[in-house]
Amino acid sequence: MTGDPTARQRQPRLRPEDLDPAQLTLYRSITTGSRRDGPFPLTDADGVLQGPFGGFLLAPAVGDALQQLGAAIRYRTSLTPRMRELAILAVAAHHHSAFERYAHEAVGRTVGLTEEELEAIRDGRPVPLDDEPEAAVVALTRSLLAGDVDEAQWERWQPVVGVSVVFELVALVGYYSTLALQLRVLRTDRTPR
Q1: Is residue 87, in this structure, part of any structural domain at all?
Q2: Burial category of 44 from C-beta neighbours within 10 Å (exposed 0-12, middle 13-18, buried 19 and up)
Q3: Which of 54, 106, 39, 81 lies closest to 172, judged by CA?
Q4: Residue 148 domain-assigned (yes or no)
Q5: Each residue of 41-84: pLDDT tens digit?
Q6: Greatest extent of the chain over all pairs of C-alpha atoms, in Å
Q7: Same domain assignment for residues 51 and 122
Q8: pLDDT per residue over 97-126, tens digit each?
């Protein structure tokens, strides 16, 4: 079950006025942090956090650690914005995550991904990329999602991007896979209305 708008949501809709102090601190950190000016709204009209962020409020200590990891992956890696969004969208496609696809296609467009590239990554097809490091990121991300990077993939792509980028991709794939699982299990994997 992914992206089913008729599925009963298992996660409570936590409005700002319903939050305890720890939840409110995390809520403010998310809504006033680096994500606030992004290409998709973080909250709905009632102030309820959308996507995985609402789930973070269920256990603020873990949710805060997750949101800090996400911010590091989004804003403090050596990946270019295009590389990062290609990798995130490969994770979204692999997990059939409607919200991740919705949010990161919007971000991807702002960093220059074309509709042809977005469609190819969404469909799991080869992405028409002339940039070798971007092609390496897509290939490595897809290998990670399949469970490992074999020796042929390693020998082909690691010299293009370096071992530190491979490490960053491992963290990115793990983080966005965690979000996809959270969205699916809590039945919140849907695009905003």
Answers
A1: yes
A2: middle
A3: 81
A4: yes
A5: 889 999 999 999 999 999 999 999 999 999 999 889 999 999 99
A6: 54
A7: no
A8: 999 999 999 999 999 999 999 999 999 999
